[in-house]
Structures are given as structure tokens and as C-alpha cells.
Amino acid sequence: MPTALRAACAIGALALLLQPAGAAARYTLVVLSHADRSVYELDPDSGRILHRVQLPADPRDAAISPDGNQIYVSLPAAGTIQTIDARSFTLAGRIDSRAFAARPAPAGLALTSDGTTLYAGAGDGLVEVDLASHLTRRWERGLLPDGLFQIQPGSDWLYFPTGNTNRVIVFDTSTHRRTAVLRVNGDPADVGFAPNGDVWFSEDRDGTATVASSMTHRVQQVVRTGGRGASRIAVSPDGRYVAVTHAASQDVALIDARARRLLGVVATGRGPGFPVFSADSARLFVMNRGAGDVAVVDVSRRTVVARWKAGTDPFGGGLRYLAHPQPPAAVAGGAPARRPGHPLH
């Protein structure tokens, strides 16, 4: 299928699937905590801890299956991917590969839209995991070690920011070929996807956020946030907002995704990690590794309205949908709403 047509089909599917879930959505908030080697499941309304499972090593990144039944967690210190049965919140098995001998590996994780194939960062390359057979194969080298990457729902293109080389490489996971290379200045670090096909990047060096078109693979605009330090990004399910956290300035910038302008900046506390929007896009959950809590931001008021304790140093999180078809963007920042992911460096 020609690239432009495939992108158009993907945008149509993405817009349909990412319609705001509203009151019909039932979901929980999944939180990764590094030092206590744990994954927590929280009630997204009260912050009450529903479940906790302890891991054999520190978690690095995670992906939630589209049906919400499985959580995959990378454990670089153990050289494996741990599978969690999310229905019982118990350890269910592990995925091993000789490629994970290259440290740090496995690192970043991302799932294809149908949930059948998992991609893991391994050294300077990627490992593809067939989740039916757990067979793995290594492909693509020369990438940023320990880097973040995400798969766009619908198109299944894998976007891999390469940090200080100021490039984002786009791979077609169906052919394993490079589809495009985008020039994104400012050390691109993380990726988020909007229902209209826009692709957003956060930049570590200069605190900017960049938006590109998945139709043309061209950068369209750069938004300055004033933030400083390592960054993470998320796009709201309704496509109205972009959130970018910054570790050094200890804040989250909220952007009008349609007008592509900064709305405001909210102080969140020490070490903000991944931002995760609620299913109705009204709230933002910010994992604060340094403060040891989850800051709950009212998006319209642009203020912190609650703080929830979740482990020792929560850094990543995502939504696990229970009784509503899970939006593809909630499968990983972003991310899955946002997949759980890397601690900040």
C-alpha cells in the first residue's frame, strides 16, 4: 500500500478508536516504581492501590496488551521481559533472548496495534518478539542504546528518536524497512500520537515540543515550553492537549494540540516522569520519581488537585482498560493512553 494511502487509512482508524471514552470507560492506572521493583494498579478516581506485584529486578519499561489482560515489563538487570497476568496481578512468565545479553537489554518496549508482536530495545538495536510463540529475532542496529520508541496505532510504524543526533527514524514493522528519517532539533527523546495523525516529540536539550505529520513525515511546527531537563510526552485521547514533563524544571507544560500553542506550565514536584491522560482527557497523571508520588492535574484549571502515593519512586504509567475497547495509544508516555516507561536519565 502506498505510504500516503496507508497513513490516511491509519488516521481514519486512529480517529475512530481514539474517540473520548467518557463515562463508558472503565480503566485503572498502572504505575511502575523503580527502587521497590514493583508494578502497582490504582483506582483512577481515588488513587487507592488495588494491586501490587513485586518483580525480580528493577523495571525499565512496559507495554499493556490491547485487551488489558497482559502487562509486559522489561527488566534489564535480569536480562528478560517479565509477563504479568493483569487479571490476577501475578507473575505469569518471562521472555528470554540471547540478544538481551547486550546490556542494557531489554530496555524500551512497544506493541503492535493487534497486540501480537512486541518490540524491545536491545543494545543498539531492536528485537522482535512473536507473543504467540515467544520466538525472537534481532533486527536493525546502530540505534541509540536504551532509547525510547513508540509504535503508531493503525499504521504500526515504529518511531525511534535518536537523541543528540537530532533524528527520528521511522520503521515499517511489517517490512522492517526504514520509511523515513525526520530532522528534529533539540535532542528528541519521546513520542506521542494524536488521533488526527500528528506525531509529537519532546526534546531534552531545549525544552521544545515538535509536531510532524505522519502523512508527509515532515516537521510542521516547534512549540517552546520553557522547560528544562529530561522530558516525556503524552497526547490526550481526544487530541486536544499535549503534555510534556521536564525533570530539571520540575514541571509539566500543557499545549493546545490543535492551535499548537503553549497553554501553561504546572509545577509538579521533583523528578516528574511520564505524563498519562485520563480516558476522558480531563485529568493528567504525572509520575514523580523524586517526590515519590503521582500528581493529579486538572487539565482545564491547570493545577494539581491531588497527590497519590504509589511505591518509592514512580516513573512510568499507563491506562489499563477493563470494559471498553482500549484505545491503541493506551497500549505504551505516552505510554499506551501512555505506556509505562523509562526512568529519566
Protein topology:
Layout: H1 3-17, E1 27-33, E2 38-42, E3 49-54, E4 61-64, E5 70-75, E6 80-85, E7 90-95, E8 109-111, E9 117-122, E10 125-130, E11 136-139, E12 150-151, E13 157-161, E14 167-172, E15 177-183, E16 188-193, E17 198-203, E18 208-213, E19 218-224, E20 231-235, E21 241-246, E22 251-256, E23 261-267, E24 272-277, E25 283-288, E26 293-298, E27 303-309, E28 314-321
Structure notes:
- This protein is mostly beta strands and 345 residues long.
- The protein has a single domain, classed as Methylamine Dehydrogenase, Chain H (7 Propeller).
- Helices cover 4% and strands 47% of the residues.
- It has 1 helix and 28 strands.
- It has one helix at 3-17, and strands at 27-33, 38-42, 49-54, 61-64, 70-75, 80-85, 90-95, 109-111, 117-122, 125-130, 136-139, 150-151, 157-161, 167-172, 177-183, 188-193, 198-203, 208-213, 218-224, 231-235, 241-246, 251-256, 261-267, 272-277, 283-288, 293-298, 303-309, 314-321.
- It has a 4-stranded antiparallel beta sheet, with no helix packed on it. Strands 4-5-6-7 form a 4-stranded antiparallel beta sheet, with no helix packed on it. The chain has a 4-stranded antiparallel beta sheet with strand order 8-9-10-11, with no helix packed on it.
- The chain is globular and about 45 Å long.
- The N and C termini lie far apart (39 Å).
